[in-house]
Design goal:
- About 55% of the residues are buried.
- This protein has one domain.
- Helices cover about 75% and strands about 0% of the residues.
- It has 18 helices and no strands.
- The protein is an all-alpha fold.
- The termini are far apart.
- The structure holds tryptophan.
- The site of tryptophan (TRP) has 17 residues, from helix 1, helix 2, helix 10 and helix 14.
Length: about 450
């Protein structure tokens, strides 16, 4: 049965690819990938990450797009309808609902971190980093995150930007944002890479990123690489599923997914090539954690010629990347509200934005007035971050690939994928066995049932 999405569809295959790449490329690539690569010793970690993208990420992405395009509704109703079509339990719909909830939670902290990036854009453009030292850079960062009022203001601004695009709908909002921002992002990134390779320690950066030294990789690092593949490809909560639900029927799912996964990985590597040469030539620490770009890069921007311009461009890049990702985090809850509760897209956007904004205050306060309120050594932000990344996304991805490859009838999945028999068999093998087993290992590790290293 052919369904139609009530929200419309992407106007072209390219629009889908830009939007899905926009979802995938975000804080995960430019903020998180460099710092966890730094913490995990470089080359070997990068190699494992790429393997995870290819063997786990890609088949799960294909599964999500396939479910979305066949279901043509929000994640919950898509999974429920497809289960019913093939005579399976409608309880599969709860997987979609968990995804919708994960959307609220991830966006709540994502918006706060993106708010830091907006603040840093203005600081860089205003020349605040001129002559900054390691000590004063740390103070600038702490001064921002420690001040709830300022962070709330930037968080509110970022949520408003996201809601503005979402409220405009699929073709008028999501697609336009991706069409304008993705090319801009790519150009700024290439400029930054050019600068880094030209003026920084390019040779050392290449060796660090591409020369694997397996002694520096721990078991925990392997699992971290896998979790990062999920987060970076936007998998496990229905974001790519809902984008798939707007995909025209004649576009090849497998080929589009391949383009998106390759682009996302390329951007992460390019971000590494933009950042590490600067880090090395300024003798900054690669393993300095989440502060890597917010604390160390301003020092470099403060010293280099045209640092004000490059600094502003860099944080603009980060804001654009986060913006097109945040839109995709908003979409599953919004479509769920529109379809289940029969309210307009505008109202659904307001409601989703309002709830997420409120939840985001928990992350804002985790860095100041609630920083002492911890449970198992985690602040509320750490808790939401690890609940979503370590539990909800892996479980969601696991369930979605099991659903597409085991629960849906073979005729349904092959009818929707419409690819060559060889590609179909390869996808089915990866989605049936490789991805679920690998994800089970990540999850069991996260909850402590098994422990690596
Ligand atoms: N992939 C984005 C990033 O790398 C974040 C993101 C957007 C995401 N949508 C998602 C993560 C859905 C998990 C699930 O920053």
């Amino acid at each position: 049965m052919e369904r139609k999405s009530i929200h419309g569809q992407w106007s072209t295959r390219l629009a889908f690819i830009l939007a899905a790449t926009g979802s995938a490329v975000g804080l995960g690539n430019i903020w998180k990938f460099p710092y966890i690569t730094g913490e995990n010793g470089g080359g070997a970690f990068v190699l494992v990450y790429i393997l995870c993208v290819a063997c786990i990420g890609l088949p799960i992405m294909i599964s999500e797009i396939l479910i979305g395009r066949r279901g043509r509704q929000n994640p919950m109703d898509s999974m429920g309808s497809l289960a019913r079509d093939d005579g399976r339990s409608v309880h599969w719909q709860w997987v979609g609902l968990v995804g919708v909830c994960a959307g609220f939670l991830i966006l709540s902290f994502y918006s706060v971190i993106a708010g830091w990036a907006v603040a840093y854009f203005f600081r860089a453009a205003g020349g605040l980093f001129h002559g900054v030292t390691a000590e004063s850079s740390k103070q600038i960062f702490a001064g921002l995150t420690g001040d709830p009022e300022r962070v709330i203001a930037w968080h509110s601004a970022f949520m408003a930007m996201t809601m503005f695009v979402t409220a405009r709908g699929v073709q008028g909002g999501l697609e336009q944002a991706a069409k304008i921002m993705m090319p801009a992002l790519f150009m700024i990134l290439l400029l930054m890479v050019g600068y880094g390779l030209h003026s920084g320690d390019a040779e050392r950066a290449f060796r660090f990123l591409f020369q694997p030294d397996f002694h520096r990789l721990t078991g925990a690092g392997v699992l971290e690489a896998m979790g990062q593949a999920f987060f970076s490809l936007s998998l496990g909560m229905g974001a790519i599923m809902i984008y798939g639900s707007y995909l025209p029927g004649d576009v090849s799912i497998a080929r589009s997914a391949l383009v998106v996964a390759v682009s996302d990985t390329a951007v992460a590597l390019l971000a590494g090539l933009a950042i590490f040469p600067i880090v090395f030539s300024n003798h900054l620490q690669v393993g300095s954690g989440p502060g890597l770009i917010f604390v160390t890069l301003p020092i470099a921007f403060g010293q280099m010629p045209y640092g004000r311009v490059f600094g502003a461009l860099f944080f603009l890049l980060l804001v654009f990347a986060a913006w097109t990702s945040a839109i995709s985090l908003m979409e599953p809850p919004v479509t769920w509200l529109v379809e289940r509760h029969r309210i307009s897209r505008f109202r659904a956007t307001m409601l989703t934005g309002g709830i997420t904004w409120l939840l985001g205050l928990g992350t804002v306060f985790s860095f100041n007035i609630w920083s002492g309120a911890t449970l198992w050594h985690m602040t509320l932000f750490d808790g939401i971050d690890s609940l979503t990344s370590n539990v909800m996304l892996p479980l969601g991805g696991f369930a979605m690939s099991v659903f597409a490859a085991w629960v849906m009838a073979r005729s349904s999945s092959s009818g929707e994928l419409r690819t060559s028999p060889g590609v179909y068999r390869l996808w089915r093998f990866l989605a049936r066995f490789v991805a679920p087993v690998a994800v089970a290992v990540v999850f069991l590790n996260a909850i402590g049932v098994i422990r690596f290293s």
